[in-house]
Amino acid sequence: MSRSRTRNITLGVEASEKQTLPESNLSGFDTHTQGIEISVNSDFLSEDPKVLNIFNARLKYGLLISDVMDNRQLNLYSLRLDASSLLFLSTPFLDYETRLLLNSRVLYSESSLPGFDRLSLGGSTAVRGFTTADFSADKALFTSVEWYLPLPERFNFNVFGQPANNILQLGLFYDFAVGQQNSVRDGRESIDAKLGGGGLLVKLAWHDRFSTQISFSKPTTGKVDGELQLDERSVRTYIDFSYKYK
Fold first, then answer.
1. Are the beta carbons of 105 and 121 closer than 8 angstroms?
2. Is 171 exposed, middle or buried, given 0-12, 13-18 or 19+ CB atoms closer than 10 A?
3. 220: burial class by Cβ within 10 Å (0-12, 13-18, 19+)?
4. Residue 194 pLDDT > 80, yes or no?
5. How far apart are CA 171 and CA 179, in angstroms?
6. Domain boundaries, the chain
7. Is the CA virtual torsion 117, 114, 140, 147 positive or negative?
8. β-strands 31-46, 236-243: how paired?
9. This prediction's pTM
10. Burial class (CB in 10 A: 0-12, 13-18, 19+), 76
């Protein structure tokens, strides 16, 4: 472990056991794994330019111990990388800063991973124009850009003692992901997918008690194996809500 005002690095080791319990009595439809994971977590703060970087890396080895029916490999390996950068940018012709948030996620495995270890390409923490059930991958790359615009000072009035910019934040975003599901049988081709979408973000907060984020996303691409198979017409909305009791 290494800590300073501008840099923190931590190492971790974690053992896990995961199991799905299907409603069917048929054997072979459950998934039971045991694994060990080594992680590196770090964050770096720079002043010029003003940027906060966060990076996480996780290397995992797992053992599939259930009686599966699909000839899946018994030994499972995966590497996952997560990175995010928060930039404070001066905006031409404006007298205030805007914030740019960049997120990226990478998963790499030559194994056919259980569903709970795959990376979902859709959902509230991935491409927000789709759902978590649309596609999950053993090899995946996800990236997103969020641009937050503060209210001009003339509209930044006080609301019960709080500036409006502390209560309401508006932003634009775009998400993109590509991924591949590895075949569980020799001789069968893997399945590829490409998802993308963008839209509007609305964030509301009241002190440290209440916060919510609402996203409205329109898909721009949703292809599986090069063909249009996912719904690209609907605008999807996700609402995240949190409240702290005191």
1. no
2. buried
3. middle
4. yes
5. 27
6. 2-243
7. negative
8. unpaired
9. 0.85
10. buried
Which of 32-41, 60-69, 71-80, 98-107 comes out lowest in average pLDDT?
A: 60-69
Cα separations in angstroms, 227 against 47, 194, 223, 230, 231: 46, 10, 5, 9, 12
- Convert the chain into a string of H (helix), E (strand) and C (coil): CEECCCEEEEEEEEEEEEEECCCCCCCCCCEEEEEEEEEEEEEEEECCCCEEEEEEEEEEEEEECCCCCCCCCCEEEEEEEEEEEEEEEECCCCCCEEEEEEEEEEEECCCCCCHHHCEECECCCCECCCCCCCCEECEEEEEEEEEEECCCHHHCCEECCEEHHHHEEEEEEEEEEEEEECCCCCCCCCEEEEEEEEEEEEEEEECCCEEEEEEEEEEEEEEECCEECCCCCCCEEEEEEEECCC
169/10 Cα distance (integer angstroms): 32
